[in-house]
Amino acid sequence: MSLDDLPGELILWILIVSELLVFAAGITAMMATQLTDPQGFSAARAMLDGRMAALNTVVLVTSGLLAARAERAAGAGDRRGARVALMGAALGGLAFLSIKAAEYARDLAAGAGMDSHPFFTFYFLLTGFHAAHVIAGVAVLALVAIRARPDAVQAGAMFWHMVDLVWVLILPPIYLLG
After folding, report:
1. Which CATH number covers residue 96?
2. What is the dihedral sign for C-alpha 112, 115, 116, 121?
3. How many domains is the chain partitioned into structurally?
4. Helix axes 50-75, 118-147, angle to 10 degrees
5. Count of alpha carbons within 13 Å of 85, Cβ hemisphere only?
6. Are 26 and 122 contacting, i.e. CB atoms less than 8 angstroms apart?
7. Tens-place pLDDT, residues 110-148
8. What is the rounded CA–CA span in Å between residue 33 and residue 20?
9. Per the database entry, which stretches of residues form a coiled coil (predicted)?
10. Would you say 167 and 137 are in contact if contact means Cβ atoms under 8 Å apart?
11. Does residue 133 fall inside a structural domain?
12. Domain that holds residue 116
């Protein structure tokens, strides 16, 4: 396989890989810091509401499915179908952000702030940086939906799938481990 065999443009792959590396570095730093206080990390993690994380996972994965459907529709020349699927994916992103905002409000009300424990520093940094990517992704999906050209839809879907993947990568160390 050569670089010419990859779907999409090389620069988009460079962006995706670089973003994944940034999140991997954050997760690695979190896991290394957890080694210094496993009980504290476990107690802090127990304060989170895993049901909200599970709901957000379902919302984001469903949104990713819609982005894939948009890509397929655009490739088949169905611009209307691509637009509908892209807007559905973008609405999924907005739903994710609404759930995350409610989760943050709950966490802050329970006394979990960025400076309350190192776990929460990583929690807010990683999930907040991910939320920023969700916001960017929603904007990309909405802009791509305007013309729904196959190459643009593919690029938007690729970015959105990276957002999905990052969530799947940060979910275990934040909500499930320890």
Report:
1. 1.20.120.80
2. positive
3. 1
4. 20
5. 24
6. yes
7. 999 999 999 999 999 999 999 999 999 999 999 999 999
8. 20
9. none
10. no
11. yes
12. 42-176
List, for residues 73-99, the tens digit of each pLDDT value: 999 999 999 999 999 999 999 999 999
Q: Does a structural domain hold residue 16?
A: no
Single-letter residue type at 101: A
81 located within any domain: yes
Cβ atoms of 78 and 149 closer than 8 Å: no
Q: Which residue has the tokens 């590396």?
A: 21
Other Cβ atoms closer than 10 A to 134? 25
Provide the whole-model pTM.
0.93
Q: Is 83 exposed, middle or buried (0-12, 13-18, 19+ CB in 10 A)?
A: buried
Does 87 map to a domain?
A: yes
The full DSSP string for 133-152 is HHHHHHHHHHHHHHH--HHH
Residue 23 burial (CB count, 10 A): 19
